[in-house]
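Give me structure tokens for this 387-residue protein.
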Amino acid sequence: MIEVLAKLGRGPVFLAGEVLECVITFTNPLSASSTSASSEMLAWASAQIHCQFHASENRVALPPSDGSKHDVQAENETVFVPNRGERGQCILSTPPKILFCDLRLDPGESKSYSYCETLPIDGPPSFRGQSVKYVYKLTIGCQRVNSPIKLLRVPFRVLVLHGLKDYQFPQDEAVAPSNPFLEEEEGLKKDSRLADLATELLMVATSRRSLHLYNISNTRGKVGTFCIFKTIYKIGEDVIGTFNFSEGDIPCLQFSVSLQTEESIQEEFQRRRGQPISFSTHARHQEACLHTAQSSFSLPIPLSSTPGFTTNIVSLKWRLHFEFVTSGESAGTCLVRGSQSEAITWTGVEQMEVDTFSWDLPIKVLPTNPILASYVSQFSSTNSITI
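Here you go.
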């Protein structure tokens, strides 16, 4: 028996274009209850990254696959196929890398191997939607002699930040801060600069603030104004906005604000022409606001959510969805006097004519630092299997 342990050193979330590093340890455990122990042999081990695509048959019409490219060897259990047994299509994969050949482990002995691979920068982000899914995995294949291949899959999350692909790193490395006591490989140095560049680009894009004022009105008149200071955010930030109903002509009884994503399939891949867009609500604020001059809301963008993106099949956009309930009467008739006694009681009217209307405000949501997103990831940094 051999235990295989795979550990992602920095966490299970990465930016496209970064280097994923995983340490794979092979151990021949020495059991205290075992009276006799023997050496174990593995013929080889290999590792490869792939992205698996899933689509809902009820919503997405994919072109038929080319049956002429069927690989007969893929059915052989002694051939390393990272996505063997998984549903969907493998739309992206890196070249496989051999970790070792003919490994012999004595009882109690273990050996570790480091796997490093640059994540493709032109791939889609990790996404689990109502119509499609993009799932990334690192698969480690091991085989004993004359035995089927055993697969250890390590799922991880990929965030995509547009603009990194076109950035050209300066040739003069002297301008970049460095530690003369450490020797860094060129690939790791570039990976570190890539993460620093992404953090800087995100900070610049989301720190711009300018006052955005919107008049809220229906067919009968003005209800109030809405104020927001920016429309570009990172996942993990809070969307904050304020209302001013003091200058409105129509009294507002209640409002709600929902932070939503809209998942739309590109027209050529729609199962039915004009099929509706799928909406998901991530946070919601509701408040009764009759006789309220000003109000505000704060909606957190979950770190586990997917930033906006577009592929050839699906598009994901973010928005604020507003719903307002207004009175059909003037503000002065919304309350009636209950009695003429010294202790005056004011009670609400039993019936009231109301109008409802909604409004959508598009916003842009970008990724965040992958280390921050790793703290709330559903994936584990460590995965294991026994063969």
